[in-house]
Design goal:
There is one protein chain. By secondary structure, the protein is α+β, with helices and mostly antiparallel strands. The protein contains 23 helices and 11 strands. The chain is elongated and about 100 Å long. The protein starts with a helix and ends with a helix. The model has no long low-confidence stretch (mean pLDDT 89). The structure holds S-adenosylmethionine (SAM). The site of S-adenosylmethionine (SAM) has 24 residues, from β3, α11 and β8.
């Protein structure tokens, strides 16, 4: 290659590297593009046969520039383009170390674990070429193997993190789709359904946020909480719009979500389009998504992170995080939920909060369901719907009972909690309310039950006139799945009895562990769960 030509290429390459190291990704990518154009122009004019040495040097320069642009592009989250660059480089030189590693990293971040593993393995087989990069390559290889295993088996272990009180490093999680399918729902529009029987505590789904925005609202500092929330919402919308414009697959997947209009008429997408591993097999249509549609979709599907992620992030109670998780967006709300969501970093895990039968719809609570019907109606209205779950249907019918309405008024009016429990239990006996429906009403009056069992004195005072705490815990958990407050009553009961329940204590302990798994998932080993529950 002519020296001047070589020098120019070298100069561009050094500048691009310098900008990359200064984290000026866009500028670095721009210089790489110049380099790529230059190499391509020289290559098309060059004659391989007459100067094979120059030709292969130019090819090498082109591959390196492509790999460098891919690196910068992946930092800018332009993953489609970055992948194309890697593929172009690998088409020229199938064993290009940098292109292989860069492609592996991109595929990994896209959740395409097995394809990523292939790239890292190929790169590892070229190790001498890696020039001392073997160590960091091994880190990537191990990470990739672990994630590939999780996404294939659904085996996640959060024990260390839980034992550390949800502090410290957030565990790395793969995306995972368990035995579920999207179908028409009796609740509303489409929903996610179990295709197999699922035990309480099983991870059903793990999905990473398309975009997330976090901050502290309220508390000290300038600007009102409401203002900060507005700014965060605006940033969040921009993030989502950025993802939509950069990635055709994301754009298509987001377009399948409900924007709240004509939910019954919405198409039922094939679940496989959400499987990152299979994304290569799908030709995602290049559709337009205007801002109004995006806003409608975000309004209906965005979720606010829960307390655990707040702890993870080391934030205080004013912490607020809003995000969009694609497949989880097909999960409807129920006041008698069978699933819970657990936020771990940017991932949302959906966990069975009780045993689920094959064919049953999965549903989690969008808001606190241990509340009476009137309160829940208000919360559903704030979400923009009238809840049509089985529990609401049943309680709607029960609203004809004046005595039940009076009991709700008595609870709100501050009547003694034990008295409210007694009245409700008596009423249920007369109205012949049984089974799950008993659990529904007890869940609605949970404040009274929780209050009564929380104090040894009041529990004693009401004695046998009200049911045993363990029986109430069972029925509420059956109706509304595991819940921290419900579990707390059982754990308190256990610690009060100090194991004095004899053989019964073991049964209750197992029950507490099962409820614990329904909250935190089987993902946690028994010992860590015991520590968490302080059993
Ligand atoms: C995140 S989406 C759930 C999936 C949605 N059904 C679909 O077809 O895409 C939330 C929307 O589903 C509907 N929805 C969810 N749970 C509901 C419930 N319990 N009762 C009535 N509508 C519900 C509401 O329209 C809500 O705004």
């Amino acid at each position: 290659m002519a020296t001047a030509e070589e020098e120019l290429l070298q100069e561009l390459r050094s500048k691009a590297t310098e900008l990359f190291l200064r984290e000026q990704w866009a500028e670095s990518s721009g210089l790489c593009s110049q380099l790529i154009d230059l190499c391509r122009a020289h290559l098309s004019a060059a004659d391989r046969a007459s100067d094979p040495d120059r030709f292969s040097k130019l090819q090498r320069s082109l591959c390196l520039a492509l790999a460098n642009r891919a690196d910068a592009g992946s930092k800018l989250r332009s993953l489609d383009e970055a992948l194309r660059d890697c593929d172009e480089a690998l088409a020229i030189e199938s064993s290009h170390f940098r292109a292989l590693v860069c492609k592996g990293k991109i595929l990994l971040s896209l959740g395409r674990y097995s394809a990523a593993l292939e790239c890292f393995k190929s790169a590892a087989s070229l190790e001498p070429q890696g020039n001392g990069n073997a160590e960091s390559l091994n880190v990537w290889l191990d990470k990739c193997k672990k994630l590939e295993y999780q996404s294939r088996t659904g085996n996640f272990d959060l024990s260390d993190w839980v034992s550390a009180g949800f502090r410290g490093e957030i565990p790395e999680l793969a995306e995972y789709i368990g035995p579920v399918e999207i179908k028409k729902s009796e609740i509303s529009g489409r929903g996610l359904f179990a295709t197999k029987n699922i035990d309480a505590g099983t991870v059903v789904l793990v999905t990473r946020a398309i975009a997330i925005e976090r901050g502290i609202v309220g508390g000290e500092g300038s600007g009102s909480g409401e203002n900060k929330q507005l700014v965060m919402w605006k940033n969040f919308i921009e993030r989502v719009a950025g993802c939509v414009s950069r990635c055709r697959r994301t754009r298509h997947l987001i377009s399948t979500l409900s924007s709240g209009e004509d939910e019954e008429g919405l198409e039922i997408p094939d679940l496989s389009i959400f499987r990152a591993e299979a994304s290569e097999k799908h030709d995602y249509p290049d559709e337009k998504l205007d801002m109004n549609k995006i806003l409608g979709i975000l309004d209906v599907n965005s979720l606010v992170e829960n307390a655990i992620s707040a702890k993870v992030m080391g934030r205080n109670k004013d912490y607020y995080g809003v995000g969009l998780w694609l497949l989880a967006s097909f999960i409807n709300h129920s006041c008698g939920p069978n699933a819970r969501r657990l936020h771990v970093g940017n991932h949302l895990m959906v966990i069975a909060s009780r045993d689920i039968r094959a064919g049953e719809e999965l549903a989690f609570a969008y808001f606190d369901v241990l509340q009476p019907p009137t309160k829940r109606r208000e919360m559903a209205a704030a979400w923009g719907f009238d809840c049509s779950c089985k529990r609401c249907e049943f309680e709607e019918k029960m609203q004809s009972k004046q005595e039940l309405r009076d009991t709700e008024t008595a609870l709100e009016g501050g009547m003694d909690a034990g008295g409210v429990v007694y009245r409700l239990e008596e009423g249920m006996r007369r109205w012949n309310v049984r089974g799950k429906e008993k659990g529904y009403l007890r869940a609605s009056f949970w404040a009274a039950y929780g209050g009564t069992y929380a104090s040894e004195k009041s529990a004693k005072r009401w004695g046998r006139r009200i049911p045993a705490a363990e029986a109430v815990v069972d029925s509420v958990a059956e109706a509304a799945g595991s819940e921290e407050r419900v579990l707390k009553v059982l754990v308190e009961q256990l610690s009060r009895s100090g194991g004095g329940l004899g053989g019964g204590a073991m049964v209750e302990m197992e029950k507490a562990l099962k409820l614990g798994r329904g909250i935190h998932g089987k993902v946690i080993k028994k010992q860590a769960l015991r520590a968490l529950l302080e059993l």
